[in-house]
Amino acid sequence: MPELVAPTTAVHASFLEAVDEWVAEGRGTVHDGSMLGRDMVVYGGRWRDPAAFAEYVERNLADARPETPRPVAMVPSTVLWYVTGDTFLGRLSIRHRLTPRLLDWGGIIGYDVRPSARRRGHATAMLRASLPVAHDLGHDPVLVTCDHDNVASRKVIEACGGVFEDQRAEKLRYWIPTSGT
Question: With left for phi above 0 and alpha for psi between -120 and 50, is residue 109 left, alpha or beta?
């Protein structure tokens, strides 16, 4: 059964397959402003090397620590991977606080499901499973955003209790309670 886990080198081969799927759909370009896109630009060419992948895993784990150096606009984030056995299905990030940009654009929780694992309920299960973690980090409710034309993500957010607040530029903004999860 799939579960959210801390990033691990145990899923290296499957992670690389997922990255290939994301590249095939056009992710990881300099125009991809998502966390996944940023990681693909920075690490993409090096992930195949086990040592570089281990470094990437450690960077993801370290990102939750407030003292970890990061660019000024970045906030600490708890990164979790959705896996079943040694198969990587997706990733999720819970930001520890909102900045003005995250309030308008990114929200507290962001997630990506690899293309071959979509339309199986994984995104809904990932987001739902992350709510207690977000609550433990002090968030109630959490802001989750999606592109205005991303019907699948909108349905995921709504299935997890998201209440629509408004649209800012191309982003729809929803609040999901974490208490009682």
Answer: beta
**Contact criterion met (CB below 8 Å) for 131 and 180:** no
Element containing residue 15 per DSSP (H, E): helix 12-24
Judge whether 134 and 142 are in contact, CB under 8 Å: yes
Q: Whole-model pTM above 0.85?
A: yes
What pLDDT is stored for residue 122 in this prediction? Answer: 98
| pLDDT of 71 over the 90 cut | no
DSSP 3-state assignment of 33?
Answer: coil
Angle between helices 122-136 and 151-159 (to 10 degrees): 50
Query: Do 111 and 124 meet the contact criterion of CB atoms below 8 Å apart?
Result: no
pLDDT per position as a tens digit, 104-129: 989 999 999 999 999 999 999 999 99
Please tell me the predicted confidence (pLDDT) of residue 181.
58
CB neighbour list of residue 97: distance below 8 Å, 6 or more residues apart? 75, 76
19: which DSSP letter? H
Place of tokens 């900045």: 99
